[in-house]
Amino acid sequence: MPPGTALDEKLRAEIGKQGQPQLARDPVNQALIRQWCDAMEDQNPAYADATFASNSVHGQIVAPPAMLSVWSRPGNALRPVGPDDPVRTVLVELAAAGYTSVVATSLAHEYVRYLRLGDVLTATQWVHDVSAEKRTALGAGRFVTTATEYRAQTGDLVGRARLDLLAFKAGRGHSTASAGESASKGARPPRPRPGISRDTQFFWDGVRAGELRIQRCARCGELHHPPMVRCPQCGSHELGYQVSSGKGVVYSFVEPCHPRVAAFDYPYVVGLVELEEGTRLITNLVHIDPDAVAIGMPVELVFGQPDPELTLPLFRPRRPARRETTLVFDEVNAGDELPPCPIPITARLIVAGALASRDYDGVHHDRDAANRSGLPDILMNIFTTGGLCARYVSDWAGPEALLRGLTIRLGTPNHPHDTMTIAGAVCSKGSEGETNLIDIRLRGYNRRGDHASGSIVVELPTTARIR
Ligand code: ZN
To answer: Distance from the CA of 262 to the center of ligand 1, in angstroms?
Structure first.
């Protein structure tokens, strides 16, 4: 921190000072683990299935590692931290100087060991640094870097965290995202309407009803798309339909780039999707970086609404299935890509994630509070982003892969009515003695840009476990 004003002197005095150790209100417990797993849709049986867990590498139920920071959090101001707490002092001083809003911008976790039911954590926190004023998208702000150590009841170190906070002057940013965005959207032409005839009416009625209907010959059972006036197989005019499962694979795709059509959202990818039922249809591929689209990629139906009067059947990458048997170190190579996973960002997910991480800040559950902070809507907290990234990696690597570290930097916020797609790749692998580690680089992007970037270090077994 540069030398300067009286404020700087006050802030400087807090750097490196150790705060009062915070004892967790409750031991690590199954109820809060379940609440977290519900929010993150994490079904790793090591977190909740006693039979699986007792036969696992852990020998018992463990908590999701990304919950590390949750256990000792103070709660809904029921137990305020002491007035001499250095992090609190710094934030109070910054608020008095006009930096009244606070958001987390990056999180680094180191997991020394997994937490077990009954562990009682104590967190000790420091202010590591306070930056000079910076211009940010949210407004003029100062970054506060905090460091925390977590110890179990036995005194052993179980993990460390580094959390960067941005304290900013609300509502003075150079970008206030979607408020202005929707105003400018009003000016653009609507997306072209489909031509609907008597033969295709059932298809568009289906779209409005939330179904993807494929024409089916009532006489011979043949499926056709696009719909026809008579069956090309048997010539029958008796035509009905079958509702598709909405699952398919990318058969082919193209990305028209030029000239741009004002009515379309870009990037714009036209896909030919082969449905499970065997027919193909032309659609748009959404919530996927065009560079990541591949022939054969599993996709699923999602209904898009470019404007209130138009609903279209679109396709996004299918959420990858959770691996039941943990990957072995030799099965993984640097450069391996993890399949992309779209995560719908709903108010429910944002609120559930905030509560599961004991984060009662209004910007995560109250749109009015978010608006007062200069934000267009509530936004996902960093612990939820971390939890979703951890779930993504552990679903890919298997239930007994051991997460050793997580680093997340946040960019554009996750607001409701969006989708974040998480993608990842193995960027390196190596062994330290008996320990096999892989480093997975992650990116989570939404329609406004990159929400999160970072990495997760995972320890994998040398050989498969025999059960
Ligand atoms: Zn037929």
So the answer is: 41
CA of 274 to the centre of ligand 1 (A): 20
Q: How far is the CA of 237 from the centre of ligand 1 (A)?
A: 8
Q: How far does residue 224's CA lie from ligand 1's centre (Å)?
A: 10
Distance 234 CA to ligand 1 centre (A): 4
The domains found in the chain, sorted by start residue, are: 6-174+323-460 (3.10.129.10), 192-317 (no CATH)
Which tokens go with 306?
A: 């470019």
CA distance 456 to 397: 11
Name the residues around ion ligand 1, CB cutoff 5 A.
217, 219-220, 222, 231, 233-234, 236
Distance 239 CA to ligand 1 centre (A): 8
**Amino acid identity at 242:** Q
Interval between CA 202 and ligand 1 midpoint (Å): 18
pTM score: 0.91
- Cα of 109 from ligand 1 centre, angstroms: 60
**Parts of the chain with a pLDDT under 70:** 1-4, 77-83, 171-186, 466-467
Return the SS3 of 295. Answer: coil
Question: What is the Cα–Cα distance from 278 to 108, expressed in whole angstroms?
Answer: 46
Distance (Å, whole) CA 56 – CA 152: 22
Residue in this structure with the two tokens 């990056």, named with its chain if needed: 106
Q: Is residue 193 within 8 Å of residue 207, measured between CB atoms? A: no
Sequence-distant (6+) residues with CB within 8 A of 337 are 423, 424, 425, 426
d(CA 464, CA 467): 9
pLDDT in tens, 1-28: 555 688 899 999 999 999 889 999 999 9
Model pLDDT for residues 228-285, shown as the tens digit of each residue: 999 999 999 999 999 999 999 999 999 998 899 999 988 999 999 999 999 999 999 9
CA 223 to ligand 1 center in whole angstroms: 8
